[in-house]
Amino acid sequence: MRLTRRAALAGLAALAATPTAFAGSGPVLHVLKDPNCGCCGAWMDILARDGFAVTSETSFGTALIRAKIEAGIPQAMTSCHTAFIEGYAIEGHVPAADIRRLLAERPDAVGLAVPGMPYGSPGMGPQDRREAYDVFLIRPNGDTEVFSHYPAA
Fold first, then answer.
1. Which candidate, 28, 57, 84, 114, has a CA 20 to 30 Å from the CA of 20?
2. Cα 8 versus chain centre, distance
3. What is the average pLDDT across 91-118?
4. What is the pLDDT of residue 117?
5. Separation of alpha carbons 21 and 148, rounded Å
6. Quick one: 63 exposed, middle or buried, by C-beta within 10 A (0-12, 13-18, 19+)?
7. Quick check: 93 and 118 in contact, CB under 8 A?
8. Does the predicted model carry a pTM greater than 0.90?
9. Which among 151, 116, 145 is positioned nearest to 133, based on CA atoms?
10. Rounded to whole angstroms, how far apart are CA atoms 52 and 95?
11. Residue 30 class from Cβ within 10 Å (0-12 exposed, 13-18 middle, 19+ buried)?
12. CATH of domain 20-150
């Protein structure tokens, strides 16, 4: 069978429309991300190495914003990507240990968020030079509280 240019392009188009899967056999974490964001991929790689089964799909502009709103993520808590795992939303560069704690404790919550893109958070540069940041627990009514604190290193 000869591969034609048309068949190759059709195959690539189908592949691009298919959610991407990263290694890992643990809990499935599905990530919605902008196609141009490299730090999202770095964060997904870290979680996959930590044992999560990570899938992703591209979500453009207003579709990504709409997903955040529908998940109950307050505007002040937003970041560059949104993930979903076992009924929880994970917004931004949340460390794997915090996601595992969330799944173990199962609080009544929308999920976790690291607002913005703090330097040194997972996927955002070396942790040995990180700026201080907090991981927030988002309650169903939109209230937030500090779930974990990471001091500057």
1. 114
2. 31
3. 97
4. 93
5. 28
6. exposed
7. yes
8. no
9. 151
10. 12
11. middle
12. 3.40.30
